[in-house]
Amino acid sequence: MDLGPADHRRHSARREGTLRAVLVVFAVLLAGCGRAGSDDQGSPPAPIVGTEPQAESGSAEGDQPPEDPGSDPTALDGLDATGAGSMLSRLASGRPPIAGLLEVAGAREAVVFAYPDPALTGTAQVFLNPTQFGTPRVFRVLDSSSHRDAVQVSLPVKPNGQTGWIARSVLELWPIEHQVLVNLDQDSVTVWDGDQVVSHSQAATGTAWTPTPTGIFFVRDVIPQVNPNGAYGSHILALSGFSDVLDSFAGGLPAIALHGTNRPDTMGQERTNGCVRLTNDIIEVLAADLPLGTPVTIVNSATSLGFGSTTDRFHGRHIF
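The chain above was modelled as a monomer; its predicted structure follows.
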């Protein structure tokens, strides 16, 4: 939808009001990219994932808010008991965790502003397009129908669970079919294409001291690795979430990811600093098949509202 003259003036005013935030973002990005480390195989710096030992300093995403909004740590992306019960019912019957239309919003401008309300007022969080890894900037869409001029999205910022509203005019929306479930109780990863399970495999997840966070996240970067035999395998699929227990890692934010490994013997164990390790053959398939914006639901019946353990419908193995 094209903006009229009045809309352009309001949009310009908002941009001027957030210029300082943009400058802060650039400064953080430059600082983060300058603190790269290298993995134990002697390959070039691993480009993210703050929660793995050999990772580069993490992602500098947006203008971080000063305090936690106080969301319920037992819920997933604001799911109440009814929503969690509905998800449990879907998983128990072998269906994917999220029902209904799945949409991704791609940024159409070099700088995107996310506001706390659909009127697009208040203090904005700022996101650069592309990301620091050269990936097109995308968001998981939460509400694209309630407001004519704004779209509600999930934001890839710490603390987890934050949402914002972005002007519809600067976004392109499209549907996707894939979604992923990480079951921390079973140390497993399940992938759906529509209602069809296309992959189910063992994984290594976070330890009791550095647990993998629960919630509904999304794939925000797919990052090929120069050394496929390194600590991250052939690819890193960076997620929109961050560790709940680490404030920083390797000089950056403690981002989490799905990635490969050179330790396939750790599958089915709690061995990571919060990321989800998969064997290289699995991560290669996911990197090729999962589009940016794919939702990744991470559950743990011990901490996530309404979740338990049932038997799945995939070759007699446990999904949930």
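The first helix runs from residue 5 to 17.
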